[in-house]
Amino acid sequence: MIGYRAGTSPLHRAHPYTPLALASALLLAVFALGSPGAVGCAVLAAALLALTGNVLGYSARPALTLGLATWVLLLVLHGLLGPEPFAALGPVSVSEPGLRRALVLGGRLTAILLAFLTVLAVVSPARLVEAMTARGVPFARMYLLVSSLTLVPRMRARAALILEAQQCRGLRLGGSPLARVLALGPLVLPLVLGALAEVDEQVLALDARGAGLPGPRTALEPPADSALQRGLRWLGLALAAAAFAFRFAGHPL
Amino acid sequence: MTAPLVRLEGATFCFSGADEPALDSVTVAFARGEVVLLAGAPGAGTTTLLLVAGGFAPRLVGGTLGGAVCSDARRPAIVFATPWTQLTGLCHTVLAEVAFAPAGAGLPREEVRDAAERSLERMGALHLAARDPATLSGGELQRVIVAAALAMDPDILLLDDPAAELDPAGADDLYALLPRLAAAGAAVLVATPDRERAARAASRALALEAGRVVADGPPAAVLSDTPVARIARAAGCPAPLPLDVDALVARVAR
Amino acid sequence: MTGGPPAPPPARSLSLRDLVVIRLGVAVNLVIGQIVAALLLPVFLDAVGTILVAALAGPRAAIIVGLTSQVLASVLSGNFAWLPFALVQVVIALYAWGAARLGAFRRLATALPAGLLLGALAGGTAAPIAYFVFGGATAGGVTAVTAALRVLGLPLPVAVATASISTDLLDKTIAFGLVCLILGSLPRHLAARFPGLAR
Fold first, then answer.
1. ipTM entry
2. pTM for the whole thing?
3. I want to staple B199 with a disulfide (CB 3.0 to 4.6 A). Which of A95, B102, B219, C37 is the partner?
């Protein structure tokens, strides 16, 4: 399952920006790496991050599941259908450069998935909001990222209700492709129109509570940060930059 | 008689895209210490009057305002009937949600926390402080929303059918709170179809019809059609008619 | 406690109303997928919110809807592979705004062809990203089609482009049709709230 898992690992206790920065550094770095070996190291680094957060099992399983289809397709697209030269791998003949490409691309995807699923598992949304507030992130940015997520379950529940109600009125979900496309109308329109009708109240409520005011907001429980963590974050980004520097200098890793 | 906090003179308000004005030549003043009930059928303009008195219309909802609105109110607070649409969506605990307004003013942490806790206590919701707002029932959430409005220490409190989601005991508590808030120095305006409860709490009632104020005075004089008042009139009770069950019982017992 | 009535925002920043509408657009993008799945339709319709906000609130708001939806969709599904496709969201937002300004959403007869064209544009923008970033393999149906076309002998870039565009044609046509219906069903008092709808 994807999502936050409570815990007491160093990553859980760290300032929320730290795992986020490390995963972002990894995300940047993998695109600079060009060989299966280097990308393999990136995957190991992501696994190490997950291990530090005590969430290796939680991140690895969905990372592999989500990436599985892509891995298979990559191996087919590049491994089997790639350019010359071919080598024999058991009963199958695979394209050597193609296989290498597939390993690099698949490894990139796996490293990214593993790193960010780890971040999702160790960073609690409440703490992240507090960290952002303490750093002076403007209300607008936090509202868009966080409040959109909290609106989703409510909207999903309403969509399910509308689905039931329309079915009671005779709407059929099956049938010809055209019938199914036409069924979109009675399901989507009430949902969107209902949401649009609520905009006024939201705007008024937010405004009355000072959401539009400029100036710093007080964080109630700002997470602790340390020089060590700040150093780690910068180090991560520096390593990513170095990887790109190597690549542009003609010595891709 | 205290100086008015908000004064409307010949105020006419039309929503954009509407043919008829929502408020038509309304001249009325609201002072601190009053609890005013705005009574009227749906579409009569009660909600619009709340928005105009609070300075929210036309600023936030568009439309055109004619006449004059003078307001000395610095901190208007507004509460609507459905709690979910009034959540910021940003806060994962009730305490953070209630603290949203004072935190936005950049006050020191302890002050913010105190203001939030005091508010929650006033609404009988302090036990919900650590809960996630998404897990609360409609009634609990509405208490939190009202607490959030009170946390700003508003000088004018505007309520639009605030007890719609509350159970009867909760509604009683909310309306009982309004005179106390007024006594502490706020002007309280409440638009609601719940005339019996509001009449008990209100010191003044305004009746609106098609955007015009047709009556303005003590609730007993302005409201004559609560179910209890109709029964009392049919039974031949002399004016002023009792407006709610308690008043009728008291009258009959005499 | 101090605090007067909020000053109007400077012209360059977003108003509170814009923010609330953007949030709505993002939620619509993220939620419609569930309706589409219930109907077993081979589309995502994950840009309906972006297109709607483009018509209601302009290009800037729509771009923010698109980018935010991308990020949040990745957070919700765990599939962060979609992040590089941010450019496609910008294309969709700008095109939808242009279409709205030209009145394409006034009738289905103009909305549907406009959607078809966007499908070609969006698919065409997504294809090079899929090719360069992921070697042509992102996930799901698009890539299966790509593989099938490769087996038939098409060179990889062409296969990627064809698969990407053909799935997007249907998706964006339906999306434009839906937004046309939504805008047409808006009651007058709601429509008047949105300056983007010049009627």
1. 0.89
2. 0.87
3. B219
